Amino acid sequence: MRRQALIALAALGLLGAACGSDPGFDGTKAPKVEAARRADGSIDDRSMCDWKGRQDREASETAGPGAIQPNVRRVYQIVGTGEDRHRALICREIDTNFDGVKDVVRRYNDKGESLHEESDANYDGRIDTWLTFAGGRLAEVRIDSDRDGNPDEWKYYSGGKLARIKRDTNRDGKPDVWEIYRMGRLERMGVDIDADERVDRWDHDNEVKRRVEEDERKKEEEAAAAAAKKAAEDQAAADKANEAAGGSGSAEPAKDKK
């Protein structure tokens, strides 16, 4: 009973906050990392792009907004030879908090479309957020909020809009809360009470459901009205054409003058 009560309370809390911003990470409470200095005096910024020692790749560094020292590194793949030789961006990494350590890396395909991104959102030196893209658009987000190295929240997107979320609220490595979204808004939430990875109860946001259904009904009515209007216009045009054709055919031929 205690477990059921805890999950129910968690579900109610999530239902109220699901349409808001992500909980994110409290960076002020997370342990910080510092850039290490190598024996030769250079700084180890924990690069996550593969470029060092490779003749077929080049790297460039720039200072992003608010940075005094370069904090953005772009790695390019050298493609082709001679006049066809050009560079294609395959990796970009950023030190977003200016501590000397790269904490975000994104990789690209040969078309320049985003493939994957990994980031250390709370700056504790460990990757805790994973993004996956499809066709250059965000498709999935996985978040490790308890710093155990494994995701406990999964977000899935369709057409650029949030479609569903899975959450592991009791930290057993398995999802126990499911959220379903329509048009980017929470419609219903499922809760697994007995830890069998199946939904035991669905909680609906009736107001959101009503608004979505109302929007869909209006769209259907507008589509039906537009179709009826077009059919009437087509019929009127056909009647007018038939009338014109009939009038010209019934005209009496001119008589010869005597």
Secondary structure: elements and pairs:
Blueprint: H1 2-17, E1 36-37, E2 43-44, E3 57-62, E4 72-79, E5 86-94, E6 104-108, E7 114-119, E8 129-134, E9 137-143, E10 153-158, E11 161-167, E12 177-182, E13 185-191, E14 201-204, H2 206-249
Antiparallel strand pairs: 1-2, 3-4, 4-5, 5-6, 6-7, 7-8, 8-9, 9-10, 10-11, 11-12, 12-13, 13-14
Strand content: 25-35%
Number of helical segments with 4 or more residues: 2
Question: Which strands sit side by side, in order, in the main sheet?
Answer: 3-4-5-6-7-8-9-10-11-12-13-14
Instruction: Give Rg in angstroms.
Output: 30 Å
Distance between the termini: 113 Å
Averaged pLDDT: 79
- Measured as a percent range, the helix fraction is 10-25%
Main sheet characteristics: 12 strands, antiparallel
Number of strands: 14
Shape: flat
- Give start-end ranges of low-pLDDT stretches: 1-30
Compressed to H and E, one letter per element, the order equals HEEEEEEEEEEEEEEH
| Helix/strand/pairing category | alpha+beta
Number of structural units classed as domains: 2
